[in-house]
Design a protein that fits this description.
The protein is of the alpha+beta class. It is built from 2 helices and 4 strands, in the order E-E-E-H-E-H. Strands 1, 2, 3 and 4 form a 4-stranded mixed β-sheet that branches. The termini are far apart.
Length: 85
Amino acid sequence: MFTNKCKRCGGKVISANTNIEIETNGVLKTITNVPGEKCSKCGHIIVDNITMEKVKQYAADYPANTIDYAMCEAEEMVVIQTLLL
Ligand SMILES: [Zn+2]
């Protein structure tokens, strides 16, 4: 899990949604609303590996250049719920 101190400067880390730019097949995409943590002192952004894997997956799955992480996750939930019915 997350530590509450920034690895870079030791500042306080707070929960924050962030935007991540990722290159997929030579196209730069922006993923918005990615859940993560951010240092309140230096602005260093921390996103865990599981979230990062999802970001990569969404970037590959959706054709848009700007992708809303929260929206993708909501759609994924709907798919899972449908499969369980
Ligand atoms: Zn920091």
